[in-house]
Input
Amino acid sequence: MNTDTTSPCPGGSGAAITRRNLLAAGAASATAVAVPATVHAQSRPPATRTPSGGSGDGAIPMATVTLIVNGTRHRLELDNRTSLLDALREHLHLTGTKKGCDHGQCGACTVMLDGRRINSCLTLAVMHEGAAVTTIEGLGTPERMHPLQAAFVKYDGYQCGYCTPGQICSAVGMLDELRAGVPSHVTADLNTRPLLSADELRERMSGNICRCGAYSNIVEAITDVAGGRS
Ligand code: FES
Ligand code: FES
Output
């Protein structure tokens, strides 16, 4: 079925607006808005082009992007509109990172980007040329688990498992932020290093949703790794 419907240009110039043109224009404007808000706003942009053989009119803009994922360098040929999440799941087949809402609301897609946690569904892969990405597959293995992975097992901090990878990646990033003295919304004194109180932990993990209600076990697991419990 041809879904690329064509309608007359309202400007009356004789040019035509296609659905594909509109999508490309929308994606371009969305990118322009999103770039300044990301941790990689200053990254060198990859070269972009249209696919070989394309006329340039309505062709999908493509780019070659290099990402270092879990220590391995990957060179990807991507539609510019590909989210980091889709690049990981659909192009590199690293399906440990989950797509829950695809709207930045659940945290299931959390990965570490150059050492900072990020919702990979909310950022475009082409914005992160040369970046180092760590997914749940890169944190540990069943034989050599990351301390947080082991703690989630020990305290039964997971239920369905769908949101667990994001919870663990977020917890890794959150503890790094705490060690670095980064304040949160509930930090009372911005002049002193924040401590891992229950309020701090819950606030810092509030971007990760667990629909089944394992929150109390997740809190115990993170507190244990942070040294709050022997
Ligand atoms: S899938 Fe990214 S926040 Fe839900
Ligand atoms: S672990 Fe997925 S809903 Fe709780």
Notes: Residues 19-34 form the longest helix (16 residues).
